[in-house]
């Protein structure tokens, strides 16, 4: 079998593939047209971030069984197109953990002591010690946003320096955080207390501009900001303005919204330290991801199983076909739960009822947990590692089966318990390709789980639906479908709207101000 490597990959990884009997062709810097012509003849494709594997290219993959990304992100691969083509897409979520954590802490130390600036000053012939008065880390609060593998490694290093560690991560239990001497707090509290703030989440709809103007205005004066995760998590314009206002005293950026950054104000800024996306740029990390992806791809081609797949929870063809609709429904239920809960998750209870119990439900559970965690963790969570990540974070996952369900031929339901509340959602399949959300927190509805959805919890009053519709209409937001659920007339009710457009935050705020609206959430499925 033949493997195409289209981005530079460490020789150690290529050697593994050759030693296992594969023909390996290394062809880097291929144009789009050259890649389209080449892929038809290969069983596997290995890439880093340089190759863009579009739907157009995937259509030409006549023999391909697997696409391997040597790294965490798979945003340069059209995963949906690959899935339709029956191609496994996999990544290496743990290969550059230490490298990125160490780079983050190097940036933090440099930021605290102005090391790059002092180095440049001395080399220019100056001897200005007073100008570079630093800040000790000991006793300072470091606020870590995202406590995955990298975030926890940063926390360990901060602990060694005597820093006080506070963190925000809704997918880590308080019990697990205590094991690492980390104080788990809500985002607003972290912003107010932290002397240093570092982000370690993937870039997603939920995390884009997670630190924006509103967040900077809540921070203590003199805070220092670090981003060695993904460009776009920090709103660069808002960060620049916060520095000009004196809220932020310095920043260290390894990633940018546009890479390479063009005309970035941070490049020439005295109190900004910038590096060209070096988080994973160590010899060890490059070798680790190469070895990891080489072994994973070889295992797939040799029929030895799938690890770190981002698009396949199971590998037996007939079983996958039978339960695929339930897998897709379960992942939607998980994503929905992730966007309606508040607090830190402690327990996830999944219940299967009716016809679905005739199948092996383990892959369905994996899909649901993946959907739940994906909202914050992005590409670093997949069908294979989802249960392990949940366990690492102190989240208990249980599943039960019942033969019969009231009103439905099949039902998948999930209750999520956090340190603040319990939330419940359930879904069913009306036909094989017709999934529905049928229960949200005790309210019976009939909603299609796709696209942009607005869910309002409100008082059942005359005119409330029209009022919401008017607000959306005034903002050119078209309603595609509407569902209404209530327990009793005049009591509390739930309105679920499928809309055709993106919904700006200001529109949600306008709806929320309405007298009879108790809560409103934007859900993206």
SSE blueprint:
Layout (H helix, E strand, L loop, with lengths): L1 E4 L5 H9 L3 E4 L5 H8 L4 E4 L7 H4 L7 E4 L9 H6 L3 E3 L6 H17 L1 H9 L17 E5 L3 H12 L3 E5 L5 H6 L3 E2 L2 H7 L2 E4 L13 H4 L6 E5 L8 H9 L3 E6 L18 E3 L8 H19 L15 H24 L4 E10 L7 H16 L8 H7 L3 E7 L7 E9 L3 E8 L5 E6 L2 E5 L4 E8 L4 H11 L4 E8 L5 E8 L5 H8 L4 E8 L1
Parallel strand pairs: 1-2, 1-3, 3-4, 4-5, 6-7, 6-9, 7-8, 9-10, 10-11, 11-12, 13-14
Antiparallel strand pairs: 13-15, 15-16, 16-17, 17-18, 19-21, 19-22, 20-21
Description of the structure:
- The chain is of the alpha/beta class and 525 residues long.
- The chain folds into 4 domains: 1-95 and 282-311, NAD(P)-binding Rossmann-like Domain (Rossmann fold, 3-Layer(aba) Sandwich), CATH 3.40.50.720; 97-274, NAD(P)-binding Rossmann-like Domain (Rossmann fold, 3-Layer(aba) Sandwich), CATH 3.40.50.720; 313-441, 60s Ribosomal Protein L30, Chain: A (2-Layer Sandwich), CATH 3.30.1330.90; 451-525, Alpha-Beta Plaits.
- Helix content is 34%, strand content 24%.
- The protein is built from 17 helices and 22 strands.
- A 7-stranded parallel sheet has the order 8-7-6-9-10-11-12, sandwiched between helices.
- The longest helix is centred in the middle third of the chain and has 24 residues, at 317-340.
- It is globular, with a radius of gyration of 25 Å.
């Amino acid at each position: 079998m033949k493997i195409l490597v289209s981005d530079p990959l460490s020789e150690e990884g290529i050697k593994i593939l050759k030693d296992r009997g594969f023909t390996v062709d290394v062809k880097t810097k291929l144009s789009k047209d050259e890649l389209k012509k080449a892929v038809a003849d290969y069983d596997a494709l290995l890439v880093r971030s340089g190759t863009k594997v579009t739907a157009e290219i995937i259509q030409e993959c006549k023999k391909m069984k697997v696409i391997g990304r040597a790294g965490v992100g798979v945003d340069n691969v059209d995963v949906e197109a690959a899935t339709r083509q029956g191609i496994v897409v996999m990544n290496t979520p743990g290969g550059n953990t230490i490298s990125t954590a160490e780079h983050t802490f190097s940036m933090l130390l440099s930021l605290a002591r102005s090391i790059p600036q002092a180095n440049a000053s001395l080399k220019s012939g100056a001897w200005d010690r007073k100008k570079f008065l630093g800040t000790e880390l000991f006793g300072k609060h470091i606020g870590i946003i995202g406590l995955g593998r990298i975030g926890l490694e940063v926390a360990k290093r901060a602990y060694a320096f005597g820093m006080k560690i506070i963190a925000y991560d809704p997918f880590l239990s308080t019990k697990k955080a205590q094991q690492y001497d980390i104080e788990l707090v809500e985002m607003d509290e972290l912003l107010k207390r932290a002397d240093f703030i570092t982000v370690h989440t993937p870039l997603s709809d939920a995390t884009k501009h997670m630190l924006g103007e509103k967040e900077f205005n809540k921070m203590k004066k003199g805070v220092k900001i670090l981003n060695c995760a993904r460009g776009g998590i920090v709103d660069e314009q808002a960060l620049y303005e916060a520095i000009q206002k004196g809220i932020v005293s310095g920043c260290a950026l390894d990633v940018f919204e546009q890479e390479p950054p063009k005309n970035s104000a941070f490049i020439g800024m005295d109190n900004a330290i910038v590096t060209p996306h070096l988080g994973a740029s160590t010899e060890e990390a490059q070798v680790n991801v190469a070895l990891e992806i080489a072994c994973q791809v070889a295992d797939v081609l040799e029929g030895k199983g799938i690890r770190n797949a981002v698009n396949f929870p199971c590998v037996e063809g007939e079983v996958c076909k039978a339960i695929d609709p339930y897998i897709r429904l379960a992942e939607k239920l998980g994503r929905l739960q992730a966007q309606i809960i508040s607090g830190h998750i402690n327990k996830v209870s999944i219940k299967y009822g009716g016809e679905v119990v005739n199948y092996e439900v383990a892959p369905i559970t994996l899909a649901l947990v993946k959907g739940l965690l994906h909202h914050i963790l992005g590409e670093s969570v997949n069908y294979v590692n989802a249960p392990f990540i949940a366990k690492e974070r102190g989240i208990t996952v249980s599943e039960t089966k019942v033969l019969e369900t009231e009103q439905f031929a099949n039902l998948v339901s999930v209750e999520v318990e956090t340190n603040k509340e319990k939330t419940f959602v359930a879904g069913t399949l009306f036909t094989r390709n017709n999934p529905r959300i049928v229960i949200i927190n005790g309210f019976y509805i009939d909603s299609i789980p796709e696209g942009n959805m607005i869910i309002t919890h409100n008082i059942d009053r005359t005119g409330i639906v029209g009022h919401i519709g008017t607000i959306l209409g005034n903002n050119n937001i078209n309603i595609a479908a509407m569902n209404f659920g209530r327990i009793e007339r005049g009591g509390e009710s739930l309105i679920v709207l499928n809309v055709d457009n993106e919904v700006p935050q200001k529109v949600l705020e306008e709806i929320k101000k309405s007298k009879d609206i108790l809560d409103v959430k934007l859900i993206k499925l």
